[in-house]
Specification:
It holds the Pfam family Trypsin. Keywords: Disulfide bond, Hydrolase, Protease, Secreted, Serine protease. This is Chymotrypsin-2. The protein is an alpha+beta fold. Helices cover about 25% and strands about 20% of the residues. It has helices spanning about 1-20, 25-50, 50-65, 115, 235-240; strands at about 80-85, 100-105, 110, 120, 125-130, 135-140, 150-160, 175-180, 205-210, 225-230, 250, 270. A hairpin with a 2-residue loop joins β2 and β3 (about 110). α1 (about 1-20) packs antiparallel against α2 (about 25-50). The longest helix is centred in the first third of the chain and has 23 residues, at about 25-50.
Length: about 270
């Protein structure tokens, strides 16, 4: 790793020089910051390559909730159903603490994944985040920009499934009860109907979210879509070791790069 470390150090020096010497506009500063962050992440990743166990565990976690290969429709009719679940206090700027997506299922209830609102790697260690630690943002497809339609809502109660298992992802479902109702105008925010029927294999569905556009990559400002297909149970069982009753899986068998990624968890699969 000596050569890799030297290259990374050289790149860091170069980027630091760019910061000091160039009169950059804000977008150029953002791009340089993204490069710096991803170089540091690259170093962490490369240093783990010598340990195959770490890489296997990393791959299981990183790619399981892996939106990559996504697109933005000219007219977005689906973003109104989705919310951004965040920490209650941003670190530096609005939207920098996005955790997961969620679906509006009633004016006061958000459906999301339990792993988005729980801490701990086993059932013994498991605890739900406090309502005061979370914020729900609805009414906008933008993560970073506040508009007249943006609704930031406090959480009253966090209800994760009583039998959620973080080791197998069984019962990975949770509800957030809000202190105030979401204002539904049918355009920027709207509740979504829940599917009650079992859908046939290869039904086309759409994932939405603000997850990383590639592993270790940046998080988008504008929500992304990706089209996938519900896969047959036998393929799901062969692909996921913990696949079981009450689960389903979806992908694009012709394009492996189309999938969800960090930050997309908890969002809807709309079919």
């Amino acid at each position: 790793l000596s050569l890799t470390s030297s290259i990374i150090q050289l790149l860091l020096l170069l980027l630091n020089h760019i910061h000091k010497k160039l009169e950059m506009c804000s977008i150029e500063k953002i791009l340089v910051s993204i490069v710096l962050v991803n170089i540091l992440r690259l170093e962490t990743y490369l240093c783990a390559k010598n340990n195959s166990k770490i890489i296997m565990e990393d791959a299981q976690e990183k790619y399981k909730f892996l939106i990559t290969g996504g697109y933005r429709p000219k007219i977005d009719t689906l973003a109104k159903y989705v919310v951004s679940i965040r920490g209650s206090k941003h670190r530096w700027f609005f939207g920098d603490d996005h955790k997961c997506g969620g679906s509006i299922i009633s004016p006061k209830v958000i459906l999301t994944a339990a792993h988005c609102v729980c801490m701990g790697d086993s059932r013994i260690e498991l605890r739900s985040l406090k309502p005061s630690e979370l914020l729900v943002v609805a009414g906008t497809p933008r993560r970073l920009i506040v508009t007249e339609k943006t609704q930031a809502l406090k959480v009253d109660q966090v209800i994760s499934h009583a039998y959620y298992d973080p080791e197998t992802n069984r019962n990975d479902i949770a509800l957030l009860l809000l202190l105030k109702n979401i204002y539904e105008d049918g355009v920027s925010a709207q509740r979504i109907s829940l599917q009650t029927n079992i859908l046939p294999s290869y039904t086309k569905c759409t994932l939405l979210g603000w997850g990383r556009i590639f592993t270790f990559g940046p998080i988008p400002d504008l929500i992304l879509h990706v089209d996938t297909y519900i896969l047959p149970t036998e393929i799901c069982k062969a692909s996921y070791i913990h696949y079981g009753f009450g689960m389903m899986c979806a992908s694009d068998e012709d394009d492996f790069e189309k999938d969800s990624c960090f930050g997309d968890s908890g969002g809807p699969l709309i079919c």
